[in-house]
Amino acid sequence: MDIRNKANRIRLFSFSTPQMRAFHFSWFAFHICFFGWFGIAPLMAVVRDDLGLTKTQIGNTIIASVAITVIVRLAIGVLCDKIGPRKAYTWLLCLGSLPVMMIGFADSFESFFLARLAIGAIGASFVITQYHTSVMFGPNVVGTANATTAGWGNLGGGTTQILMPLIFAGILMLGVEQTLGWRLAMVVPGIVLFLTGIAYYLFTQDAPNGNFDELRERGELPKAEKEYSMASTFGAAAKDIRVWALFVIYAACFGVELTINNIAAIYFFDTFDLDLATAGMIAGLFGLMNLFARTLGGVFSDLFAKSGGLKGRVRWLFIAMLCEGMALIFFSQMHVLTLAIGIMLVFSLFTQMAEGATFGVVPFVNRRALGAVAGIVGAGGNAGAVAAGFLFRSESLTYQQGLFYLGIAVSIAAFATMLVRFSPQVLAEEDAAYREAAGSSAAPAELSLR
To answer: How does it sit in the membrane (predicted)?
Structure first.
């Protein structure tokens, strides 16, 4: 895909260009998606008592919330190639708002399970976010742009843990019973999701020069049916071993983050005998690290590329992944609350930097099948969360034991970076493109405040 006029700087406080409007709307939309996707997680202690759920049943709903996203992420990347990220995001947000509001009708494990399964489709929003910034920003800042929009979107995992218990408490102050309160609380993110979808359609465009249908009419992009069929894009991506290596890597970083988003509140609630609000606040700290941690992963990816090219990006990805695995192993062994919180923050830092580093590599794997590559790799995150979910549904394993085994798996997955290689021709071409883009900006990976 040959997109012209990509931005070579990130002007954080600018909304005047299509690149920056896509930047801000994509991270905000992804952020709001977390409220729908994981809004119920910090309220699970109440839901558990209301619906009489067992630990195994809770584990099954956790798996359901991320399982369907694997399939939807695979499809949404190809859909972005065909209709553009603007329409794809609008449809996902508006349709996804419906099961979020309807989860309040659940009155049994089965209906609650199906609601969480349907809501999981919202998680495909990540792929659209990464796709949109990948087509809007140049090679010298694309790692930073992807990491920042994804990171600020993932920040929703932290703010959700903090705000949803407060929304729930506010509803209870109106005299509403707990059994109705958690149901009404989920209406709030549903409404916001729908309104965000409408705004995305009205205020963004697919590429710097216009929407995909306009570009195809002008001959600036190939016709969708010729260039972006399922066979030509998904097939090309699926045959590339590097894509599946990144699938495994992303499973071991974003998959871990999704797992922590689902279990953190109830883990601190049960393990350290805390109240619901305090457990939610502590759990929220993990997600709040996205305010800067994932951006750092992208910034370092761009900086490593300055001296080491694409090899430098891959080298940094290995370092971040290995540190994540080690930190998770240490976190699993903590029995003192203050130490557990401290190590959790270190673990969170490397987890999110690894996520940013992963999508600092993705845009360079196959430009002609960018959506398909992003979709497959993004699906890896949810596949990892599904796999990890089985560790936390077992009655025979404690949460701490599950976290320990997960840390070992992450450390092993770091070595999948050895499969991510590029030909000498691609290395030379991307190095030249980086130099050209950086030459017309103030500095590599710059986030300008103007």
So the answer is: Multi-pass membrane protein
- Would residue 292 count as lying in a domain? yes
Q: Would you state the pLDDT for residue 224?
A: 60
Reading the block at residue 409, the tokens are 């798996």
Rounded (to 5) percent helix, strand, coil in the chain: 80, 0, 20
- Residue 178 forms part of a structural domain: yes
pLDDT digits (tens, 9 = 90+) for 23-39: 999 999 999 998 998 89
Q: Which two tokens stand for residue 269?
A: 């609630």
Would you say 137 and 19 are in contact if contact means Cβ atoms under 8 Å apart? yes
Overall domain count for the chain: 1
* 57 class by beta-carbon count within 10 Å (0-12 exposed, 13-18 middle, 19+ buried): middle
Q: What is the mean pLDDT of the chain?
A: 88
- CA pair distance 449, 16, nearest whole angstrom: 14
Supply the DSSP string of 282-324, one letter for each residue: HHHHHHHGGGTHHHHHHHHHHHHHHHHHHHHHHHHHHHHHHHH
- Residues 9 and 61: their CA atoms lie apart, in Å, by 42
Report pTM.
Answer: 0.77
Q: What is the pLDDT of residues 406-431, one digit of tens each?
A: 999 999 999 999 999 998 888 888 88
Measure the CA–CA gap between 32 and 20, rounded to whole angstroms: 18
Whether 3 is covered by a domain: the verdict is no
What is the rounded distance in angstroms from the CA atom of residue 54 to the CA atom of residue 60?
10
Q: What is the mean pLDDT of residues 106-117?
A: 93
